[in-house]
Amino acid sequence: MKTRSFVAALLALVMALSCVSVFAEDAKVKVSIWSTFTNDQDAYLRKTAEDFNASQDKYVVEVQTQPNQNFTSTVYNAVVNGEGPDIIFNYASEAAKYVSAGLVANLDEYIYDDEIGIPDFDSLLPEYLFEEINGFEDGHIHYLPGYTTGPILFYNKTLLEELNLEVPKTWEELEAVSKAIKAAKPEVTPFGIDSAVDITQTVILESGAGYIDIAGKKVLFDGAVDAVAWLGKQIQDGLFALTAPSGGYFSNDFNSGLVAMYYGSCAGVPYIDPNGFEYGVAAAPSTHDEHAAYTIWNRGPIVFSANGEEAAEGAYLFVKYMMTTPEIAEGWAEAVLALTPWLNAQTVEGYDAYVASQPALAAVQENFDIGVSFPAVTGASETRDALKELITVIGGGADAAESLAACVETANNALQGN
Known about the structure:
Layout: H1 2-27, E1 29-35, H2 39-55, E2 59-65, H3 71-80, E3 87-90, H4 92-96, H5 108-111, H6 127-133, E4 147-149, E5 151-156, H7 157-162, H8 171-184, E6 189-193, H9 196-206, E7 212-213, E8 218-219, H10 225-236, E9 240-241, H11 251-255, E10 259-265, E11 279-283, E12 294-295, E13 297-303, H12 309-324, H13 326-335, H14 351-356, H15 359-365, E14 371-372, H16 380-395, H17 400-415
Parallel strand pairs: 1-2, 6-9, 6-10, 12-14
Antiparallel strand pairs: 3-13, 4-13, 5-10, 5-11, 7-8
Helix pairs in contact: 2-13, 9-16, 10-16, 12-13, 16-17
């Protein structure tokens, strides 16, 4: 009987401890990440969340996989209705959509806090990125960069060698090489553009024009007629193309030899499978003068405030853990096949070797010193749309001055909330 009583008491104790454990887990503040990452990226994110959860006893971070289709609109509707996540990974421009409604956390209030802040934060990122993270219209930080990619030049190395052409480094050289290819191979599109907006922004900035006057709520590129006219002429002359022959991205037609060079994301390397030729990658062309500029893409965590202060603070602490722990930030960059923007993570042993092993990433890194960022304010997204429309119509033969004036009017109306 004594044995039975002892066993019964032991079982009761185990059950009690289990209940305490479950209660303790339930008592933690839950922080949700809505994610569209897959494979290695998803595994790394989940492992990071598990390690963070084990490191403290107040919060539990849960990674919830979501469909990629219509993801941003789904998130927006959920957040507005108080049913959304605490963290998503996206661009600063996405965070800007929530600022006026007060649905994103003011991360600077945490970052510079004496107790839970990020030590030496102002020395952890390159200068241009502080312009980006501080570029929201309310003056607060609502997003931090997590990893960096950017456009590069993909080129048919075999074809350029056959025609005795050098890989172009400037826009003038790109035009000259494109003309030579067009003359020798009329059936080949010399140069394709996967991102019309980014190349248009770049040639505008490199002309010496500005972009957006945040305080004045207006664009500054109304005088960039010559720059956009030049880009439009290359399209009109059949040297540059905005649309791939087969539609979609230019990688497919590049693989088949129908396109000799193209301007596209470094993340496109896995889709390159040349049919009978050798290819190469290089830094995107630039003026290489005092106006040199390069659009770098930074994607990272956006923290929402809609689920309450405790959830927002827990989300910030996870972001701090993931982004500013050098080894974790460096590992995340490798998991997503990108560069890390965090200067302390760039010093982690093995990072330089990793970048050197990825020529496309090395090509992005080559333009880091001329990297630029764009303010994430009301109307910024519409400004990008207006620029895409601008270069499309000029490429189709529309007057550059009239088209630019219409673009400026559209952008200014959007920036002023009209």
